[in-house]
Specification:
Largest sheet: 5 strands, parallel
Shape: elongated
Mean pLDDT: 74
Radius of gyration: 50 Å
Helix content: 25-40%
Strand content: 5-15%
Strand order of the largest sheet: 6-9-10-5-11
Structural class: alpha/beta
Oligomer: single chain
Number of helices: 26
Low-confidence stretches: 1-39, 316-329, 576-616, 618-634, 663-824
Distance between the termini: 148 Å
Length: about 800
């Protein structure tokens, strides 16, 4: 290539700096351009099916759960094809670290174990491979899984048992074999589906034993399991149909050969003797020799840098990144202790980004963040290359779709001081993951793949030794929990909710604590733990009721009603002091006096000992409203109050008419003060000419048409309850005799108000010519009349009498009295 005249293929590869080394193009900035920000996106809401329930994951108010309608049930799960299983396995593999590829390690001295495992699996037997950490179990599992690719109808299923329960492993097996988008079967449906799966299931880093392991084996009788555990894991049950294969360390020659593959050259005699001493110290564990070979490679790199720097001036700018070492032949080999625990020495010779990545891994309990998060966490746009440095150095080991620190590395780094700023690094990771997990562009699958790192950061912050840590943990749990639920991983969902609930309690954030209680109740309902669901939901409803969070309380009551329906118990009532979910604004309690404050005037009430809430009907128009209210009144106190009010109104009208009436009395316009009956007729005068004596409130009427006593002071009631013509007909007037004190003697003035209808018909019959209204009883000594329920009342507004409403009780007269009116 001509450095002066470059070809077209060389454009864009500008070299900057005095060293002439090519620089990698810069990636997108960590912070967006504030002038070109995208509009905020709505929070994701996911609907999925969990058994017989339809679960709506709502990150704002909390998840809602309801029974799944028969017409909306999803289709049955479908088995994946061989190509689909292969694609899924490649997607679930850990990412390839950037940078130069690491050398492929051979499988040394494992032929016998490999053939035995293959033979047992071919016969359908399950095998437990037991060996210490760093003994090469993962490498042996990879080789055996490749040999068993065509052994079972459903192929080979790779699972990670790191921090996984038996139920989570069964659901992982179901997801690997079946395709069921947004569908998670319940326990019974899961057991029915996995019962027919025929596959070779390879589980690495299994942490189960005893009854839990037996549950896993019993649920999948058609599967052959290859389990990799450590000796500290509980042994399987005695009656378990499980073979055990113990994996030991390598021999001395195999260990030296493995080290030579790492260094990619033959060892010198001095290095071989050092490797022999290391083999005796480490009992031949392959991981120790991989790390020891990485030490020799770093030593070779330092020696090469020293030789390349010979003959140049000692310019500080040209110094190697790790300082200028000693002369070429004077670089000593690591000590035996450094070879047995090489993590600190290996880390000291890595780049700053790699060492910062190790600090984050120590803060997260050995969980290494995904390489896509390292630039944001470390603050370097090229920090993702640090993952390749750590992998080549033997400090990482794969764990499902991610990496974690290799066995023993975490303890060695903590002793070397990498854990001094663990709280600060965990808080930085939690703040980053809070933003990332809650972003709408992050799919639930990506969030679930990073679940171990998220949970580790929350676990570190929950004790809340420093101020503000608990609030950061609450924010992370609040952002990650909906993503875990949408990813249908109930195990990590529950862990996030538990950590968030504890952090919210410590921080005093009642609203967030109520949210976590609600989500835990919904989760317990999905898993069939009704008692736990009831306790969590009741706690959430109580907290949200105290906070006046009506939407959240409504969602909690709906879920609690579903719990009561599934358990067969009555729906619990609303707690005291808490408003209902949908309180009507047109309902109110009556006053303590018992009189309604709104129309209708006399509503029908029932006799209750507590507070009564009645619905207010729209007011009626016209005079029929008052009449209907009186007729419908059934209570004694309401009738008395209504009659008293009506009596007061009528008496006020009579007094007003009497005070405002004039002296003129046109003929036929008003009732005269003359009596139409003679007093001397045995005491049987016309009762209509006498004013009412006694309380008229029982009848609810008053005026000139009321029953009046005779000379003996008693009133004679009629045999019928209908008004007589002499009492109500305006065309008749009383005859001469004793004046009636209950009727006005003068005509009302023109300007006086009159509540009754003014008569316009001129009377044509004289008092002496009127017919006898009714026949009186034979016994003149009749007792004083009392109100009767059969007597009807007349509305004052519909009466034709000028002096008020006519009484319904008809005044009786004698048949042959001298004062009896006769027809003209």
């Amino acid at each position: 290539m001509d450095p002066t005249n470059r070809g077209p293929e060389e454009y864009g590869n500008d070299r900057s700096g005095d060293d002439g080394a090519p620089r990698r193009p810069s990636r997108d900035p960590l912070t967006p351009d504030f002038g070109h920000q995208t509009p905020p996106q709505q929070p994701r809401t996911v609907q999925l099916t969990s058994g017989d329930f339809l679960l709506t994951v709502n990150p704002v108010d909390g998840s809602e759960i309801e029974p799944c309608r028969p017409g909306e049930r999803p289709a049955a799960p479908v088995r994946r094809t061989t190509a689909q299983r292969a694609d899924r396995e490649r997607a679930a593999a850990p990412p390839v670290p950037p940078g130069p590829p690491s050398p492929q390690m051979p499988l040394l001295e494992r032929r016998d174990e490999r053939e035995r495992l293959l033979r047992l699996l071919g016969r359908g037997r399950s095998v437990c491979l037991t060996g210490p950490a760093g003994s090469g179990r993962t490498a042996l599992l990879d080789a055996v899984a490749a040999d068993c690719a065509d052994l079972a109808p459903d192929g080979v299923v790779r699972l990670s048992g790191h921090k996984r329960t038996a139920g989570e492993l069964l659901y992982g097996l179901f997801e690997a074999v079946y395709s069921a988008p947004l569908q998670r079967p319940d326990r019974e449906g899961l057991l029915a589906l996995v019962h027919g799966i025929g596959a070779v299931v390879v589980v690495d880093d299994l942490e189960l034993g005893g009854a839990a392991l037996q549950e896993l084996l019993d649920a999948t009788p058609e599967c052959a399991f290859l389990l990799a555990t450590t000796p500290d894991v509980g042994a399987p049950a005695a009656d378990a149909n499980l073979e055990t294969v113990v994996l030991t360390g390598l021999g001395r020659s195999a260990s030296i050969e493995l080290m030579e593959h790492v260094v990619e050259r033959a060892l010198t005699e001095e290095e071989a003797n050092w490797a022999g001493d290391l083999w005796f110290e480490s009992e031949g564990l392959p991981l120790r020799f991989v790390q020891a070979g990485a030490l020799l490679r770093q030593r070779d790199g330092l020696r090469t840098g020293q030789e390349a720097s010979d003959g140049y001036d000692d310019d500080p700018a040209d110094a190697p990144p790790f300082g200028r070492g000693e002369p070429a032949g004077s670089l000593p080999l690591p000590s035996l202790g450094e070879g047995a625990a090489p993590a600190a020495l290996l880390a000291s010779r890595l780049s700053e980004a790699a060492r910062e990545t190790l600090r984050f891994a120590v803060a997260l309990g050995g969980e290494v963040p995904h390489q896509a998060h390292l630039p944001a966490l470390v603050g370097d746009t090229h920090a993702d290359a640090a993952l390749g440095e750590l992998a080549v150095s033997g400090l990482l080991s794969p764990a499902g779709p991610r990496y974690r620190l290799a066995a023993g590395v975490l303890a060695q780094l903590e002793v070397s001081g990498y854990g001094e700023s663990a709280d600060a690094h965990a808080r930085s990771a939690a703040q980053h993951y809070s933003w990332w997990a809650g972003h709408p562009s992050v799919t639930p699958e990506r969030a679930v793949a990073e679940a171990d790192a998220l949970l580790a950061s929350m676990t570190r912050l929950v004790p809340a030794e420093a101020p503000g840590q608990a609030s950061v943990a609450v924010l992370l749990a609040r952002s990650a929990a909906p993503a875990f639920a949408a990813g249908m991983q109930w195990g990590v969902w529950e862990k996030a909710l538990r950590a968030g609930q504890e952090a919210a309690r410590i921080a005093g954030e009642v609203a967030e604590e109520a949210y976590f209680h609600h989500e835990l109740g919904v989760l317990a309902l999905c898993t069939g733990h009704l008692d736990r669901a009831r306790a969590e939901l009741e706690a959430s409803i109580g907290m949200r009721g105290a906070l006046a969070d009506k939407p959240g309380a409504v969602a909690g009551r709906r879920a609690l009603a579903l719990v009561a329906d599934r358990s067969g118990e009555p729906v619990p009532s609303t707690p005291a002091g808490e408003e209902g979910p949908a309180r009507r604004h047109d309902e109110s309690a009556p006053p303590s006096g018992g009189v309604p404050a709104a129309k209708p005037l006399f509503p029908r009430l029932t006799d209750t000992s507590g507070t009564l809430i009645t619905r207010q009907d729209p007011p009626r128009t016209g005079a029929s409203s008052g009449r209907t209210g009186v007729l419908l009144g059934a209570r004694r106190n309401l009738v008395a109050v209504g009659a008293g009010a009506l009596l007061a109104a009528v008496l006020g009208t009579v007094v007003t008419l009497g005070a405002t009436s004039g002296s003129e009395d046109p003929e036929g316009q008003n009732v005269t003060t003359e009596q139409s009956a003679d007093e001397g007729d045995g005491g049987n005068g016309y009762s209509a000419d006498e004013p009412a004596d006694g309380p008229a409130a029982g009848e609810g009427t008053a005026g000139g048409g009321s029953s009046s006593p005779g000379p003996s002071g008693t009133a004679t009631p009629s045999t019928s309850a209908t008004p007589s013509p002499g009492a109500t007909d305006p065309s008749t007037s009383p005859g001469k005799g004793e004046t009636s004190s209950g009727s006005p003697s003068d005509r009302p003035t023109q300007g006086s108000p009159s509540p009754t209808k003014k008569p316009t018909k001129t009377p044509t019959t004289s008092p002496s010519e009127s017919e006898t209204p009714s026949e009186s009883p034979s016994d003149p000594e009749t007792p004083t009349p009392t109100p009767s329920e059969s007597e009807t009342t007349t509305d004052p507004s519909m009466s034709d009498s000028a002096s008020g409403p006519a009484d319904t009780v008809t005044a009786s007269t004698t048949q042959d009295g001298p004062g009896s009116p006769t027809t003209a």
